[in-house]
Amino acid sequence: MEIIGIISLPNWLVGILASVLAICVYTWYKQSLFRRLGIPTKKTVFLLGDFVDMLKEGFSYISMDLYKKHGKVFGLYTGNKPTMVISDPDIIKHIMVKDFEHFTDRPQFIMLSKFWRSAMSFASGDAWRNIRHTLSPSFTSGKMRNMTPYLHRCLDIFHGLLEKNIEEHPQGFDIDPMVRCYTMDVICATSFGLEVSAQTDLENPFIKHSKEFLDINPSGNPLFIIQILFPELANAFPKLFESNLVAKHAIDFFKNASISLFEDRKKSDANYKDLLQLMVNANKQAENEETSGGKRKGLTDDEILTNSVTFMVGAYDTTAATIVWILYEMALHQDLQQKLVDEIEEQIGEKELSYDNVFTMRYVDMVMSETLRMHPPNTRLGRQPDCDIEICGVKIPKGMDCTISTDIVHFLEEYWEDPYTFNPERFSPENKSKINEYAYLPVRGGAAELCGYASSPA
Predict the structure, then answer these.
(1) Which candidate in 250, 294, 303, 400 could, as Cys together with 213 as Cys, close a disulfide (CB 3.0–4.6 Å)?
(2) Membrane-crossing residues (predicted)?
(3) In terms of C-beta density within 10 A (0-12 exposed, 13-18 middle, 19 or more buried), how is residue 380 classed?
(4) Residue 48: CB partners within 8 Å, gap ≥ 6?
(5) 422: alpha, beta or left, given left = phi > 0 and alpha = psi -120 to 50?
(6) What are the start-end ranges of the H helices in 176-300?
(7) 320-338 burial code (b ≥16 CB/10 A, e <16)
């Protein structure tokens, strides 16, 4: 091929040059989106965006740095993919409540396998609404109250092991493994009626596989990185990029455990009072209920299986981490620890701990709430609009990944006085009503609030 009658180039080279030029123009256009919208952002690396900085410094560090420079709304690029980071409670209120009908979808950074697409954590639109609508009744106060006997058995074991460790290690010991084993016992017992004995078995397979399950390292998987940086490729070749997120053998372990339990429950007439049975019952009942759109779908077998696995591992990690943070803060602030102990002794004394008397302990609630503020289980809450929308003067295009950064929101000085100080008094009865509920999002909020949160003390 001749160019201007002077230079002759082979067609294959022309094709390559044209492709490179097209990629450059496309990348420039994609990475100029926030500039066109008037949203501040940092200087990005061509093709990679802010991805390298995110791997090196972490999303939270970069977000806090940009918040200090640009305020409560700014943009980041993962490759060509733009993400709008939001920490303005007024905008958050629209996303979570006022305009939530347009924000039911979640950003998908990777091409998920069919197994994961059935999980409430990843489902979008009508699928998410249906799963949540069916699961929510499983977390009423009455049904959670029925789980108390399972909790007592696990707590008795934990108490015995705790006393043993204190006696054997008077100078101190690492309580994190103990808490994680206790939490696994509680989750499996209360949710699935399953006694895994994680606290008394140091080589317990549930603990081993849960660690592998939670070990997500995108930098070690080339296909993972490619689809994060170039989502268009994943959309063009979904089967090639389909991901299970974690090690297959870890998923298979929890899938097989859940399948075995699920099959037994379908055949059993026993009156179980755990989460799995509540999901199975909800599925049967939902099939016969009418909604405005006709028969409600209920939960399919695959949806029950997937949500069993995600709840088993997800609840284990977030619950254990929160308990450890509470213990950490109490160790640092022993004056507050004594107030906590005094209240427990006054309210409970020799009585058996129950779902109801937990709610009588105000200071326990205050400590839990402040711990969740300073150490939220989820530091990012993602939503995606199904249409172009403008909120509080900010234009958000259809399909834009919107990330609510709780580790910024929870430390905004205009809402939290001296935010880096652990102070449970923020959540005292006289102060709690003054808190902007959209500046406190430990477990999501609004219509997307975590199932069961309304029935919990915090």
Answers:
(1) 250
(2) 12-29
(3) middle
(4) 79, 229
(5) beta
(6) 176-192, 205-214, 222-229, 231-236, 238-241, 248-267, 275-286
(7) bbbbbbbeebbeebeebee
Q: Give residue 214's identity as a one-letter amino acid code.
A: L
Q: Which is nearest to 83 in space by CA: 128, 33, 47? A: 33
Tens digit of each residue's pLDDT (9 = 90 or more) over 443-453: 755 444 455 44
Query: What three-state secondary structure class fits 387?
Result: coil
pTM: 0.84
Q: For residue 115, what is the enclosing H or E element? A: helix 114-117
- CB of 426 within 8 A of CB of 363? no
CB 297 within 8 A of CB 128: no
String of DSSP letters for 59-103: HHHHHHHHHHHH-SEEEEEETTEEEEEE--HHHHHIIIIITGGG-
Distance CA 279, CA 267 (A): 15
- Give CA–CA dist 72/91, Å, rounded: 10
Kindly report the length of the chain: 458
Q: 81 Cβ partners below 8 Å, 6+ apart?
A: 30, 49, 109, 228, 229, 231, 401
> What DSSP assignment string belongs to 323-382?
HHHHHHHHHH-HHHHHHHHHHHHHHTTTSPP-HHHHTT-HHHHHHHHHHHHHS-S-SEEE
Q: CB-side exposure of 371: number of CA atoms within 13 Å? A: 26
Helix and strand totals (H; E) in the chain: 22, 10
Domain positions in the chain: 1-30, 109-382
Q: Residue written as tokens 């939670």?
A: 214
Q: Which amino acid is at 284?
A: K
Contacts by 66-75, CB closer than 8 A, 24 or more apart: 66/40, 66/41, 66/42, 67/405, 67/408, 69/40, 70/40, 70/41, 71/40, 72/408, 72/412, 73/39, 73/40, 73/394, 74/34, 74/39, 74/40, 74/41, 75/33, 75/34, 75/37, 75/39, 75/40, 75/41
**Three-state DSSP class for residue 398:** coil
**Token pair recorded at residue 84:** 């709008």
Q: Does 85 score more than 90 pLDDT?
A: yes
Question: How much of the chain, in percent, has pLDDT values that exceed 70?
Answer: 87
Cα R_g (the chain), whole angstroms: 25
What architecture does CATH give domain 109-382? Orthogonal Bundle (1.10)
Q: How many CB atoms lie within 10 A of CB 429?
A: 9
User: Which tokens hold the place of 180?
Assistant: 């994680």
